[in-house]
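Q: Give me the 3D complex with 4-nitrophenyl phosphate.
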Amino acid sequence: MIKVMFVCLGNICRSPMAEYIFRKLVSERGGDFVIASSATSSEEAGNRVYPPAAAMLAQHGIHCQDKRAVRFTRSDYDAYDVIVCMERRNVSSLERMLGGDPDGKICRLLDFTDAPRDIADPWYTRDFKTAYAEIAEGCQALYETLTKQN
Ligand code: 4NP
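A: Here is the predicted complex, encoded as structure tokens.
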């Protein structure tokens, strides 16, 4: 079993999209995974997925009404095998919180693709379509990497 935690700033746009897209991939293609998402900030804790992000998922037949935003905790670091951030800033925030990354678990979603880069925050860009496409690209590459290794 592989435990995957997706992380972004608020846990209402990008990391929940990644969580639910990855869940769908696993349900279609198989694998033994525990999948979750969380935020580096507590700003949105308890809130539902931001409606434009939920709408992008719904357009792809994915429903996320049960999700509520939660903040990443120190115990998550031990509980998960792979901690997948949406952008470099999330990596820095986690490393600051944890005093580094002693087990080398923290990575960035699009680093699994041939074009490593950050996923721009659609909260600011308002481009939820591009965010969805990039997250789906990253999830596909992550799935392939993790299922090849195990
Ligand atoms: P996310 O987007 O990190 O993709 O969930 C954001 C959501 C909320 C805020 C920032 C980014 N905010 O500043 O409240």
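A quick observation: The longest helix spans residues 128-149.
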